From TrEMBL:
Pfam families recorded: ABC_tran, TOBE
InterPro entries xref list: AAA+_ATPase, ABC_SmlMolc_Importer, ABC_transporter-like_ATP-bd, ABC_transporter-like_CS, Mo/tungstate-bd_C_term_dom, Mop_domain, P-loop_NTPase, Transp-assoc_OB_typ1
Gene Ontology molecular functions: ATP binding
Name under which the protein is recorded: Sulfate/molybdate ABC transporter ATP-binding protein
Lineage: Bacteria, Bacillati, Actinomycetota, Actinomycetes, Pseudonocardiales
Species assigned in the record: Saccharopolyspora rosea
């Protein structure tokens, strides 16, 4: 296939990275893992900033690395665009000049490069920032300009290295929503390194989990997070994810409607997810009457003691959900597996996010 195919092995004292990836054109692959797992090392190898001991990387059916044949295309010729935690804009250039830098470096005439810069600044909702220098931009504004700069160079591969990690709590949701929109429109393979499960939920079609330099889980984002096999994945997943179709103030999951607060912009009738913590869920034998809360019918799958609480796992239309309740509540309700109960959660505790990969449960 075209897109990205990579199989690499990178060694350093007391650490070895071994990874095999395939990312189709227009697909977003998220790489999740703890600090020291090898996430940024993997991006550096893909970009050509680090040379692995063994490996082969194909990009758009061309080979940019093959250690067996002695092929190693340098970074500036790989056609890779990078968006990192820091915007790394040229401080002496305006936003427009920063974005035009890539096309100009590729030989595009000045007028055409400026036109491309204006187009991409408009795409990332930063047209009004064109004449400002980086010192006049907020963190969120600078990241928008940096994204425009990465895309204006027309890369064959887009690498995102925790692009939201340095943003404050107000700027991050807006930038996450913008990335969701832009990445869906561009047809290049994208590899996203993140430590935030919400980045994977909103942006990624598929998810790879790295631990100690090795791929331990991979698959569609929803499947990996719903059925984690590793303790790390279960810990970071730690959230209920109910996929569906966006409505004005929530999602439709089959004939179930779940209301919540819209965390990032999402268009009506598009794939979206309701995200909420197990601690926000109450378990009822019957649906609460006359209540504005969300009530979701589930079939009990398991009861898992976790210190002071019991994690109650339920399944609805193939989707696994969890509620953390006290042992006393379990005893009072007489909960046993395979029974039908109701998971109830307040709308204020539910965040609505757009999702990639068509993971709708409608």
């Amino acid at each position: 296939m075209s897109g990205l195919r990579a199989e690499v092995e990178f060694r350093r004292p007391e650490f070895t990275l071994r990874a095999e990836l395939a990312v189709a054109p227009g697909e977003v692959l998220a790489v999740l893992g703890p600090n020291g797992a090898g996430k940024s090392t993997l991006l550096s190898v893909l970009a050509g900033l680090l040379a692995p001991e063994r490996g082969r990387i194909e990009l758009d059916d061309g080979v940019v690395l093959d250690t067996d044949r002695g092929v190693g295309v340098p970074t500036h010729r790989r056609g890779v665009g990078l968006l990192a935690q820091s915007a790394m804009l040229f401080p002496n250039l305006t936003a427009r000049e920063n974005v035009a830098f890539g096309p100009r470096a590729a030989g595009v005439r000045r007028a055409a490069a400026r036109a491309a810069a204006d187009r991409w600044l408009s795409e990332v909702d930063a047209a009004g920032l064109a004449d400002r220098r980086p010192g006049q931009l907020s963190g969120g504004q600078a990241q928008r300009v940096a994204l425009a700069r990465a895309l204006a160079a027309e890369p064959r591969l887009l690498l995102l290295d925790e692009p939201l990690a340095a943003l404050d709590v107000d700027a991050a949701p807006a930038m996450r929503g913008l990335l969701h929109k832009v990445l869906r429109q561009q047809g290049k393979p994208t590899v996203l390194v993140t430590h935030d499960v919400l980045d994977a939920v909103v942006l990624a079609d598929r998810l790879v989990v790295l631990l100690d330099g090795s791929v331990v889980e991979q698959g569609p984002t929803r499947d990996v997070l719903a059925r984690p096999r590793e303790a790390f994945t279960a810990r970071v997943a730690g959230l209920n994810l109910l996929p569906g179709t966006a409505r004005e103030d929530g999602i439709a999951f089959g004939d179930i409607v779940v209301s919540g607060r819209v965390a990032e912009p999402v268009d009506g009738a598009e794939p979206a997810a309701a995200v909420f913590a197990p601690t926000a869920v109450a378990v009822h034998r019957e649906p609460p009457r006359g209540s504005p809360r969300n009530a979701i019918p589930v079939r009990l799958a398991a009861l898992e003691p976790r210190g002071d609480v019991v994690r109650v796992r339920g399944v609805v239309r193939g989707c696994s959900l969890a509620a953390d309740v006290t042992p006393a509540a379990v005893a009072d309700l007489g909960l046993v597996p395979d029974e039908e109960v109701w998971f109830v959660v307040k709308a204020a505790e539910v965040a609505i996010h757009p999702v990639s990969g068509g993971s709708s449960g409608a």
